[in-house]
Design brief:
Blueprint (H helix, E strand, L loop, with lengths): L1 H18 L2 H10 L1 H22 L13 H23 L28 H17 L2 H28 L1 H9 L7 H4 L12 H21 L8
Length: about 230
C-alpha cells in the first residue's frame, strides 16, 4: 500500500505545491515557459504512471461491502462524467493551457463553458467519486481519492493563475461562468446552448461510455457490476 500512497502524494504534490504556488513563477523565470511545461508534464506523467503501476499490487483492504446499488450509482455518475471530460478536452476553453487568448474573445464562455468553466475536472471528480463508492476498499480510496482531491482543488488553483495573468479578461470570464455546473446559468449570468456543445462531441462521449461499460472494463478484468 505504501508505494501507492507515496505515488499519489507525489502526483498531488506536483500539482498543488508547484503548479499552484509561486514556485511555478520562479521555475518559469529560470527555465522558460515551454521547458517548464515540458518538465511539469513529464513529472506528472511519471507520477501518474507510478500510481497506475502500484494500484494492482496494493493489498485488498475492505472498508465497506460491495453493494450493487453503488455500482449503479457509479454508472450513473460516469454517464455524466464522461461527456463532461470529453467536452472539456475537445471544446475551446479559456482556462486550458495554451488557450488563454480565448479569455479576451468577445464571448469567452461558449458551449460547455457556459455550464462550467472546468468541465474536465468536474468530470474527473464525478468519475472518481463513483469509483470510490463502487469499490469500497482502501486502495481505490487512496487512488481515486487523490484524483478527486485534485479535481476539487484544481479549479481554485487554475482560477487564481488566470486572474493573476490577465485580471481584466479574467473578470469578464468569471462574470459569466462558474466552477459549479449550472450555477452561472441558475443565477442568470449565462444561458444553456445545447447546439454549441457539438453533436459529434456528445456522440463520441456516448460511444466511449458504452464501449467502457460493455467491453473495456470487463476486458481489464473489472466488471462494472458485481457478479
Amino acid at each position: 500500500m505504501l508505494p501507492l500512497a507515496l505515488s499519489c502524494l507525489l502526483f498531488l504534490g506536483i500539482h498543488v505545491f508547484i503548479s499552484g504556488t509561486a514556485l511555478r513563477g520562479w521555475l518559469v523565470a529560470r527555465l522558460g515557459l515551454l521547458p517548464y511545461r515540458g518538465l511539469f508534464s513529464l513529472m506528472s506523467a511519471g507520477a501518474l504512471g507510478a500510481m497506475v503501476a502500484a494500484y494492482p499490487a496494493a493489498p485488498h483492504v475492505e472498508l465497506w461491502p460491495e453493494v450493487a446499488a453503488l455500482h449503479w450509482l457509479a454508472l450513473a455518475l460516469n454517464l455524466i462524467a464522461l461527456p463532461l471530460a470529453v467536452l472539456g478536452i475537445l471544446s475551446p476553453n479559456p482556462t486550458s493551457v495554451g488557450q488563454e487568448r480565448l479569455m479576451r474573445a468577445a464571448k469567452p464562455a461558449r458551449g460547455i463553458i457556459r455550464v462550467t468553466r472546468h468541465p474536465f475536472l468536474v468530470g474527473v471528480a464525478l468519475w472518481a467519486l463513483g469509483h470510490i463508492a463502487a469499490n469500497g476498499a482502501l486502495a481505490p480510496l487512496i487512488l481515486f481519492g487523490s484524483l478527486l482531491a485534485l479535481a476539487l482543488i484544481g479549479p481554485r488553483l487554475i482560477d487564481a493563475k488566470k486572474a493573476a495573468a490577465d485580471p481584466e479578461a479574467w473578470r469578464k470570464l468569471a462574470a459569466t461562468t462558474s466552477w459549479l455546473p449550472f450555477a452561472a446559468i441558475a443565477q442568470g449570468r449565462n444561458h444553456f446552448a445545447l447546439a454549441e456543445l457539438g453533436w459529434w462531441r456528445l456522440t463520441l462521449a456516448l460511444a466511449l461510455y458504452l464501449a467502457i461499460v460493455t467491453y473495456l472494463h470487463a476486458m481489464a478484468g473489472m466488471p462494472v457490476l458485481p457478479g
